[in-house]
Design brief:
binds L-homoserine; Alpha-Beta Plaits; alpha+beta; single chain; Ribosomal Protein S5, domain 2
Amino acid sequence: MKVSVKVPASSANIGPGFDCIGMALPIYNTITIEETVLPGTGIEINVMSDDDSIDEKIFHDIPKDENSLVYKAVEMLYNSIGQEPSELKINIQTGIPIARGLGSSSSIIVGGLLAANKLLGDPADETALLAIATEVEGHPDNVAPAILGGVVLATQEEDGSLAYSKLEWPDEWDITVCIPDFQLSTEIARSILPKEVSMQDAIFNAKHLAMLIQAVNTNDDKLMKVALKDKLHQPYREKLVPGMREIMDAFKHEDGVLGCVLSGAGPSLLIISYKYDLDKIKSTVKEIWEAQNIKFDIRTLKVEEQGAFVF
Ligand code: HSE
């Protein structure tokens, strides 16, 4: 038997929602799991890219053994029903740029889990799949939108239980994703964060995330412009992303640009705008990144409302 799953990219944090909110985007990875006929063949993992120009080194850097996230996720699912995975061939077709803050690793975890779940006869429901994916990834803000689609608020409580809820993103708010041609590992981008933050900064983010949710729910672009600010991760990470501060500053006083935030742990940036000239966004980013010799891809996208699906 062979099962494939198409999984969307995701952009986590959206400014103040560090580790608890993310949106699915229409860029995809496809994960296929095939039961092999030869007993004792273990698990084979192959990675292929939609993009021929992709750096070979990237593939070498992706673990293809039991250290791989897809292996861990599949193994946890099998173990949850008292089984061990074996005789499986896992193919990962990547369309989501790797290590750019677009949820590539989450999509691989989710794709592996959903495919394995299908092969096993659907023993795990949506919440159980989300719990395993969160445990492997460490936080739910990419895996939740990858599974559910749309914009999702999600938290894993101290007892391990999950709570999540979808928000309805205003259709007229444009999302421009700026993807530089360098990688930034989430591990590095998390390692530079402080272990503790001030009460003042914690309150700042709580206020702004509350405003973000209200702005989305009431389609209030003016409130959204106030909301899209963060003091918990972006100020520490900006030194890892050349041009990030300049790009953010360039749009700060533009009424139609509701905000420019780091996508996940970076280095991609997400620019949210309303009735604003998208060519102007592109030319501003181009001017700043080209002056720093940074090549990039820039795309205006809609939120992907459909989560991962088996086919
Ligand atoms: N919330 C996570 C972070 C997303 O910012 O580190 C990246 O995995």
